[in-house]
Amino acid sequence: MQRNSADLFNAALRLSILLAVLIALVGSLLGFLIYGLAGVFSSLIAAAVSASFGVLTILSIRFGSKLPLNGFYGLVLGGWLLKILLFAVLLGSLQGAEFISGPMFFFAVVASVLGGLSIDSYLVLSSKLPAVEN
Amino acid sequence: MDAVNIAELSGNIAVVGYGLAAIGPGIGVGLVVSKTIESIARQPELAGRLQVTMWLGIAFTEALALIGLATPFIFA
Question: What is the pTM of this model?
Answer without folding.
Answer: 0.79
